[in-house]
Design goal:
This protein is mostly helical. It is 32% helix and 0% strand. It has one domain. It has helices at 39-47, 53-60, 72-80. The chain is elongated. It starts with 38 loop residues before the first helix and ends with a helix. The relative contact order is 0.15.
Length: 82
C-alpha cells in the first residue's frame, strides 16, 4: 500500500500587485484530550512526517517506531503515568 502525504507545501512568488484569495493552514489544535487519540492515527502522523517519534511520546503518550509500529504495552504504560 502506498502512503500519500496528508499535507503539501506550495511556495509562490508574488508581485506587489498580486492578490491572495485565501490561505489554508493545515494544522490546528485539534479537539479532545491528546492522550485519548487513537495510537494508530498518531503512528500515521509519524509515517507522514507530520510529527516526530519524540512528539508522539511527549504530546500523545504513544510509543511508536519511525516505521509506524505502535508498542501497545509501552503506550499504555506511558499514558497511565500521566
Amino acid at each position: 500500500m502506498q502512503r500519500l502525504r496528508s499535507y503539501y507545501t506550495e511556495v509562490v512568488g508574488l508581485s506587489p500587485y498580486d492578490e491572495v484569495d485565501g490561505v489554508v493552514f493545515l494544522a490546528s489544535g485539534g479537539y479532545g484530550p491528546a492522550l485519548e487519540r487513537d495510537p494508530n492515527k498518531v503512528a500515521d502522523d509519524v509515517l507522514d512526517e507530520v510529527i516526530s517519534v519524540e512528539t508522539a511520546l511527549r504530546d500523545y503518550g504513544v510509543v511508536v517506531s519511525a516505521k509506524g509500529v505502535v508498542d501497545v504495552a509501552a503506550t499504555a504504560k506511558a499514558r497511565a503515568g500521566r
